[in-house]
Specification:
359 residues, 3 domains, Rossmann fold, alpha/beta, Arc Repressor Mutant, subunit A, 6-stranded parallel sheet, 46% helix, elongated
């Protein structure tokens, strides 16, 4: 094949244009504006802009306050550590999948470890990240008791830390506004009871995650406050909290015990801190044939929960979506900003919305 044919077969025009821009910035210029690069390359301004934004996203360029672009020194490929809550939990699986895809798209190497819902394992994983000298750690573990230890270890090692769902000292928080997501779930439960049961509610059961600390417990606090606002006639002593630890088996056990203790009660609302324990509660309700007397709302919008919501006569009536598909792109974007030394806010809340069937 002649030279022209080889060029036509293997030449990638947009890649060539990106290299032209990088080479122009490597010629000794401290920085360049969009207009300067447009005049020099003679590419369309839209093409130049999209290339610049891609190179900025991948960490090759920085966009300065004066609007000019400068080359960023990249001695090696960035390597982030991610410790997932548990490979056996659907929510954790979804976060991991989203993060892997976003890291690959941004050219970031990801070292994945599993905390296995165990604080001892979470500490061991934190120490592993430090030994590996990763550039940043994204921590997703449930036990607040070890959060200060992990935060202190990362700070001592000089490794930036993002904590997902559970705040850690010396970290940037990423996750839902726990009180507000709980309030949204509770408000839906209250309106459901008002419409379906004429507001006649005898008990409100909250399935909590105590080890996660006060911030995550805000989900049940918010749910209770919303139910009180909709149904102020429910006596305070009828609001009961139990520690389900975010586990299906424990949610089932605690709900079964509660229903046996109150075998003649009608109109029971259950607000769960996550869909996993909510699905456990549903098993107990269904086994005891109490579905017409109970309404359950969870958190996370897991596929199994969504299927139940659209199942006729299911007691599982609503869940709150935390838009987990957005976690990966937003976490990687936040992590890149941190390692580049950019100022970032201490808290980053994700959007949420109630998902429910017809009431």
């Amino acid at each position: 094949m002649d030279k022209t044919g080889v060029s036509r077969l293997y030449h990638i025009p947009v890649l060539s244009k990106a290299l032209d821009i990088l080479e122009f910035l490597q010629t000794g210029k401290a920085s360049a504006s969009l207009d300067e690069l447009y005049r020099h390359t003679r590419f369309s301004k839209t093409t130049v802009y999209r290339i610049l934004k891609t190179l900025e996203h991948r960490g090759y360029l920085s966009h300065q306050d004066d609007g000019r672009y400068r080359l960023v020194h990249r001695p090696s490929k960035l390597r982030f550590g991610f410790a997932g809550q548990s490979g056996e939990l659907p929510f954790s699986q979804a976060v991991t999948a989203s993060l892997k895809e976003a890291a690959a798209a941004s050219g970031v190497e990801l070292l994945l470890l599993d905390n296995r819902y165990d604080p001892t394992m979470a500490l061991a994983n934190a120490e592993h990240f430090i030994r590996e000298r990763v550039d940043l750690v994204i921590e997703c573990q449930i036990d607040q008791s070890v959060a200060p230890i992990i935060g202190d270890k990362m700070a001592a090692a000089g490794i930036p830390l993002i904590s997902v769902e559970i705040p850690h000292p010396h970290s940037i928080f990423f996750g839902v506004d726990n009180y507000r997501v709980g309030f949204s779930a509770g408000e839906f439960l209250g309106q459901y009871a008002k419409k379906k049961w004429q507001g006649k509610v005898q008990w409100v059961l909250g399935l909590d995650i105590q080890e996660a600390g006060s911030l995550v417990q805000g989900r049940i606090t918010g749910a209770f406050e919303a139910i009180r606002a909709v149904l102020p006639q429910i006596p305070p002593e009828r609001f009961i909290r139990r520690d389900a630890r975010g586990l299906q088996e424990r949610g089932e056990k605690l709900t079964g015990e509660f229903l046996r203790q109150h075998s003649k009660s009608r109109g029971i609302l259950i607000a769960a801190a996550d869909d996993t324990s909510a699905l456990g509660a549903l098993k107990a309700v269904r086994r005891m044939k109490r579905e017409s007397q109970v309404a359950i709302a969870g958190q996370d919008a897991l596929p199994e929960a969504l299927a139940e919501i659209h199942t006729a006569r299911s007691a599982f009536i609503a869940t709150v979506s935390h838009e987990v598909h957005t976690y990966g792109p937003r976490l990687i974007q936040l992590a890149l900003a941190m390692v580049r030394g950019q100022h970032v806010a201490p808290y980053h809340h994700v959007a949420h919305q109630v998902v429910a069937g017809e009431v």
